Amino acid sequence: MTDNKKKSKEAKQWLDEPRNVSLFLKVFFWLCGICLLADLIFSIGWHKHHAFADDSLTEGMEALPTFYGIYGFLACVALILVSKMMRSVGKRKILMREEDYWEK
Amino acid sequence: MNLMTLASGADLGAHPAMALIIGGILAAFLRGRAASLFLVLAPVLGLWFVWTLEVGDSSTIVLFGQEIQGVFVDRQAKLFGYLFHLAALIAGIYSFHLRDPWQVSMGLLYAATAVGVAFSGDMLSLFLWWEGLAITSVFQIWCRRTERSEQAGFRYLFFHISSGLLLLAGIVFRYHEEGEKAFALDSLTNALESGDVGAVLILLAIGIKAAFPGLHVWLKDGYAEATATGPVWLCAFTTKAAVCMLARLFPGADVLMVVGVSMAMFPIFFAVIENDLRRVLCYSKINQIGFMVVGIGIGTELAMDGAIAHVFTHVIYKGLLFMSMGAVLLRLKEIRGSELGGLYKSMPWTTGFCIIGAASISAFPLFSGFVSKSMIMVEAATQGHHLLWFLLLFAAAGVVEHAGIKVPYFAFFSHDSGLRPKEAPVNMLIAMGISSFLCIFLGCNPAWLYELLPNKALMSDGSVYYPYDFTHVINQTQLLLFAMLAVTFLMLRKAYPPETRSINLDVDWFYRKGGRIFLKSMSLFWNRLNERAHSFFIGKVVGAVTEFTKAGHVRVLEFLSDPMHELGLLGTDTKAKAKNKLSKRTGLGLHQVGLTALFGILFLVGFLILALY
Q1: Does B476 lie at the interface with A, CB-CB under 8 angstroms?
Q2: Residues sharing a CB contact under 8 Å with residue A69, sequence separation 6 or more, in sequence order
Q3: Using the 8-state DSSP alphabet, how is residue B61 labeled?
Q4: CA distance to partner chain A, nearest, from residue B94 (Å)
Q5: Strands A96-97 vs B58-63: parallel, antiparallel or unpaired
Q6: Cβ contact A86–B487 (<8 Å)
Q7: CA distances from residue B586 to B191, B554, B607 in whole angstroms, order as listed
Q8: What pLDDT, in 10s, does the model give residues B2-30?
Q9: If residue B156 lies in a helix (H) or strand (E), which one and from where to where?
Q10: Fewer CB atoms < 10 Å away: N or C end of chain B?
Q11: DSSP H stretches of helix in B333-425
């Protein structure tokens, strides 16, 4: 009860407003878009240094515009989904245990 | 042997770690603010002393007739000297409020041992400092004074004492093969690659301290149970001293590339599902050390510089992240992601500093991680390690997820936990402020750091490495933003794994379960043996002996009573009466003087006969 009272008395912060959260996200999405666009323009109009010195399949991949964006996105999705499975699959726990597991 | 031959010949006047050692000892005897003052004074003095050292300076002492090169100054040692003193200063300011002499003095002595490792001139001095590192550091865990921290401290010690023993064994093996030459701190890469047992043991010893895969659990176990200020000390010294030695002893060892990339990869999966936010940082720490180990494994001058630069920036930003979590723990006695959230409302400064640390570890342009990690990535690519490069890029994207977003998000934002702790104490804010400044300063002015590096970050064409070319900036920004986008996307779709009150099994399962099985089986075998032995010896043998000593002499005399009666030794009583009297008197220990004397003589004669034959 006291907690709730405290909360209602508290001044609302900028992020308490759902509108502001969606504004924040919108700015973030725009930032991603601008970054992608900058990469496209730069790759086509000028020349990006390639990471690899030799000509190989991977070198070609790395040189493609937007490669880093796509790779970063997919890597993170894969990372999170695999980690989730490491914790538990369905209701079956794989690595997850109760907090006092080692005290038992 | 006089004292001069026991320990003599300090050419340098003082050891670079001397200021910290004296500070640590004084802090142990002082109380209150006077003790804390040394947390600031000693590192500042030491920093100045390191600055005055010239490359090539050395110092030898003779200990028990054996010459030990206690100090050797080169560019790498000097850089680590600066770093360890700077880290001690920041951690010292952060711990200024402590009134626990154990934590304060051991913190300073711990920093001193790390400085000792960095400057050690041969294997013997390295070994001495290496052991010191293990013993002084454990107090940052034990001083939390809970049962859990006590046990975690012992597990931590188990690993680190093993590391010391492996190092010693490695040195002995090598000494056996090569004699005095084996004490030199020269590269062992060739020896390692030709399968030298000593070199393998030394690598393992360093591997434990550097948290190689499988040997890493002490880190996430110990740091998570340490005091609020403990990990700030712990994260700066042990693993970094190990990386320092790895760079000295195993530059260009191919195996380190494999080890390093697995260190960079596997912890990020655990970090995603870990609930204890300090433990998340531990996993993230292993991931970052992985980058350094890869740099050393690649072994080119720029890669080595990259690894060492990454140590420098990492100590500062990881310290910053641990400091922000330490402040939360200090205020709330709680650090589980599932219980926190919304703390930005009452801890805005800590939140801001944590975000700066998160941006640095994620290697955003203009932050310190960017200028160091990129050197390793560039070298991985230019040296043609394609798969390695792709995996490192994956790991780099993974860092954004757990250290860049998860730690600040679940602690300070996320759902409002309703908790409104006070902002961190002023000394903590100052320490976090200094680290934040350094993160941004080094990110914006990498030349300051590059100038200090062993090879001055020179590329093969002789120019200094420049991280801020447009390609690099746009690629890195894109990678990080889209990794963040992926997290946002999964969170909005509610596919992101929520923080739950749980722990996750790691390879600690094997040794903790193994340890328990060992303990149980040993207890079963030895305790049962003990019980059997107890019931036989105490229950039966002792009983019989007692019975004998209690009643034995009575029986003997009863047995002798009839012949003695016939000889007329027992007076005029009847046989039965005399026997009865004798047994009664013997039981009570009452005898006539003459009879006692007779038996005394008989016993003496018996002993004499036994002794003679």
Answers
A1: yes
A2: A32, A35, A36, A39, B478, B479, B481, B482
A3: E
A4: 29
A5: unpaired
A6: no
A7: 81, 6, 21
A8: 444 434 444 667 899 999 999 999 999 99
A9: helix B147-178
A10: C
A11: 348-361, 368-382, 386-399, 407-412
Which of A10, A38, A72 has the CB atom closest to B483's CB atom? A72
- HEC string of B277-337 equals HHHHHHHHHHHHHHHHHHHHHHCCHHHHHHHHHHHHHHHHHHHHHHHHHHHHHHHHCCCEH
Phi then psi dihedrals of residue B70, to 5 deg: -70, -35
d(CA B287, CA A31): 28
Contacts of B488 in chain A (CB under 8 A): 25, 28
- Domain residue extents for chain A: 12-65, 66-104
Residues of B in contact with A66 (CB under 8 A): 478
**Rounded Cα gap, residues B445 and B450, in angstroms:** 9
Inter-chain Cβ pairs, chain A and chain B, closer than 8 A: 159
**pLDDT at site B4:** 40
Q: How far is the C-alpha of B348 from the C-alpha of A14, rounded, in Å?
A: 13
Rounded to 10 degrees, the C-alpha dihedral B605/B610/B612/B613 comes to 140
Question: Which among B108, B114, B110 is positioned nearest to B44, based on CA atoms?
Answer: B108
**pLDDT (tens digit per residue) in B521-549:** 999 999 999 999 999 998 899 888 887 77
The residue among B582, B454, B485 whose CA lies nearest residue B74 is: B454
Residue B476 contacts residue B370 (beta carbons within 8 Å): yes
> Which residue type occupies A64?
L
Partners of residue A1 in chain B, C-beta under 8 Å: none
Reduce the secondary structure of B451-510 to three states and give it as a string: HHCCCCCECCCCCECCCCCHHHHHHHHHHHHHHHHHHHHHHHCCCCCCCCCCEECCCHHH
B316 φψ region: left (φ > 0), alpha (ψ -120 to 50), beta (else): alpha
Quote the tokens at residue B324: 């922000």
Asked if B78 and B50 count as a contact pair (C-beta separation under 8 A), the reply is: yes
CA distance B53 to B73: 7
Q: What are the pLDDT digits (tens) for B217-236?
A: 999 999 999 999 999 999 99
Nearest CB among A7, A38, A73 relative to B482 is that of A73
pLDDT score, position B64: 79
pLDDT digit string, tens, across residues B40-59: 999 999 999 999 999 988 88
Q: Cβ distance B307 to B292 under 8 Å?
A: yes
Segment (H or E) for B611: helix B593-612
- State whether residue B375 is helix, strand or coil: helix
